[in-house]
Amino acid sequence: LFSIFFTSAGFVMATAPIAPTINGLLNPPTDAESLELYDPPNPTAASINALILSHPLSQSLRADPSFAESRPHMKIPPAARPNNLTGGTLLGDDKVVVPPLVFTEAEGKSLVSLQYLGSALCGHPGIVHGGLLATLLDEGLARCCFPALPNRVGVTASLNIAYKKPCRAGQVVVLRATTVKVEGRKAWVEGRIETLGEVLEEEEEVGGMRVRKVGEGEVLCTAEALFIEPKAAATMPRVY
């Protein structure tokens, strides 16, 4: 009896830290809840966060009823974030300082994401590493099309990137993606990363709200990708 008791107690104690992670995967926060989960850890992060949230581009997308706003990386259980590249490793001071703010159009039609890229993400001094931009495009284009796939998950089959201009560190960039074709378990997506356009004097009405217009940003790189849903997708866990 003592052996059974202590063996069972040891098992419970060993697996206890896993329980919140499992619960987080099975019951992730909603889009709206994910927006409330980030608390800037320092004044620099708070300033960047305020800029992204209040920028006229964010305001315009927020007012558009066809888009849903979220911070997907905040849906990853805290215990799992250190082992997630974009949700943990790349987040932090001088990197992707605040979790990207993402606006998604229903049924996987399009996506717009705003994120700050810091000086610790460079290849050449002051220039963001091209591999980091490829990572952002891979994830952003995937996130765009997944809702259009039967089981809402897929893997990258191909990703072609054209680098147009250097991406300087220390700025907010905009990732835009559009799903151009879906055939069964396959989805083709196009996208780009551009600078945050200049805020113009003119206003426009979006969803009954008037917001300042934003000029076109400078295109830094473009991409085309094909994503394929695995045959066993129905049994795959959803990370976020």
UniProtKB/TrEMBL annotation:
Q: Which UniProt keywords apply?
A: Isomerase
What's one Pfam family the UniProt record gives for this protein?
A: 4HBT
InterPro entries in alphabetical order: HotDog_dom_sf (IPR029069), PTE-AB_protein (IPR052061), Thioestr_dom (IPR006683)
Keyword Isomerase on this protein?
A: yes
- MF terms (GO), sorted A to Z: isomerase activity
| Annotated Thioesterase domain residues | 126-198
Q: Which CDD domains match?
A: PaaI_thioesterase
Q: What is this protein called?
A: Thioesterase/thiol ester dehydrase-isomerase
